[in-house]
């Protein structure tokens, strides 16, 4: 490896990693995350590897990595290497490897991801919904995970939502002492706010931004299966799908058939897969799937 791309301050959501991989045509990406589990020094820690298409590594790649790992006899570290993760731009280092120099690039991952979203959604329509005469008040809970800077920048700065629309937006090592699992048990701050009736839409994200929960007014819970079906039924409101069309839908086996009913009306196929995002990647790469989701609140 001769070049590393790292998010400013070490902050990168899973969707942003996928975006950057595809944008720069990287060989892959590594995500260090607790996902929706407890974090901190005594918490959990995981490593996710995404391949060149921006999706999770398929079984054949994961199995190969595992087999190679069993043959490793040593590893080298560079304790004196100091990378300033707060400073945007390129930093170069002279290491004892075949790449001269070794480059580390610190990027504004929020800005890169924001530019991607601008090409997918109608930001003017969303901005009018949040700030216009018939505005809807929303509440988004980042659960002190990586999504905080994204929520602030995109929702408040770009789309004009009031600052109090976003809560728990400071990334913390221990996620504020509770698992960043977007459900009715742990997203209590969001649930309490929504039950008050002031907000018409609420959402919470997990630690690395690849899971969410949706709440309606008065705290009405929208389950993962219905959320996926509602999005599918309203794809005509999203410019990207108006331009590219809808080829099909994908859902995991435990996800309900609500999506199937939408697909029947839209006259597009539905593909049922085992649980695991890597199976959706195969459908998308083959051009058969435009939207997919699973029972654990992952949608893309």
UniProtKB/TrEMBL annotation:
A molecular function GO annotation: phosphoglucomutase activity
Recorded hits in NCBIfam families, A to Z, give: PRK07564.1-1 (NF005737)
Mind telling me what this protein is named? Answer: Phosphoglucomutase-like 5
**Mind telling me which InterPro entries this protein's record contains?**
A-D-PHexomutase_a/b/a-I, A-D-PHexomutase_a/b/a-I/II/III, A-D-PHexomutase_a/b/a-II, A-D-PHexomutase_a/b/a-III, Alpha-D-phosphohexomutase_SF, PGM
> Which Pfam families does the entry link to?
PGM_PMM_I, PGM_PMM_II, PGM_PMM_III
Residues covered by the Alpha-D-phosphohexomutase alpha/beta/alpha domain: 10-75, 130-218, 237-298
Query: Which UniProt keywords are given for this protein, alphabetically ordered?
Result: Phosphoprotein
Family, according to the entry, reads as follows:
Belongs to the phosphohexose mutase family.
PANTHER family annotated for this entry?
Answer: PHOSPHOGLUCOMUTASE-LIKE PROTEIN 5, PHOSPHOHEXOMUTASE FAMILY MEMBER
Cellular component terms (Gene Ontology)? adherens junction; cell-substrate junction; cytosol; sarcolemma
Signal peptide position in this chain? Answer: none
Which GO terms are recorded in the biological process aspect for this UniProt protein? Answer: carbohydrate metabolic process; myofibril assembly; striated muscle tissue development
């Amino acid at each position: 490896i001769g070049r590393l791309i790292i998010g400013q301050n070490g902050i990168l959501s899973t969707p942003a990693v996928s975006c950057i991989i595809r944008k720069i045509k990287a060989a892959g990406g590594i995500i260090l995350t607790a996902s929706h589990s407890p974090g901190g020094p005594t918490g959990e820690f995981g490593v996710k590897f995404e391949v060149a298409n921006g999706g999770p590594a398929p079984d054949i790649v994961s199995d190969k990595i595992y087999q190679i790992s069993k043959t490793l006899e040593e590893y080298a570290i560079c304790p004196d290497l100091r990378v300033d993760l707060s400073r945007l731009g390129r930093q170069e280092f002279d290491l004892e490897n075949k790449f001269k120099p070794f480059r580390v690039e610190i990027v504004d991952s929020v800005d890169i991801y924001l530019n991607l979203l601008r090409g997918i959604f109608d930001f003017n329509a969303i901005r009018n919904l949040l700030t216009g005469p018939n505005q809807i008040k929303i509440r988004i809970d980042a659960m002190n995970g990586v999504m905080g800077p994204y929520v602030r920048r995109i929702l408040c700065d770009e789309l004009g939502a009031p600052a109090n629309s976003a809560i728990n937006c400071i990334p913390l090592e221990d996620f504020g002492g509770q698992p960043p699992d977007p459900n009715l048990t742990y997203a209590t701050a969001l649930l309490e706010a929504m039950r008050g009736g002031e907000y018409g839409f609420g959402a919470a994200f997990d630690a690395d931004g690849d899971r969410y929960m949706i709440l309606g007014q008065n705290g009405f819970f929208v389950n993962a299966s219905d959320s996926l079906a509602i999005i599918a039924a309203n794809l005509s409101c999203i410019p990207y799908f108006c331009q590219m069309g809808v080829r099909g839908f994908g859902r995991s086996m435990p996800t309900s058939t609500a999506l199937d009913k939408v697909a029947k009306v839209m006259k597009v196929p539905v593909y049922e897969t085992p649980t695991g995002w890597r199976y959706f990647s195969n459908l998308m790469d083959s051009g058969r799937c435009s939207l997919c989701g699973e029972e654990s609140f992952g949608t893309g």
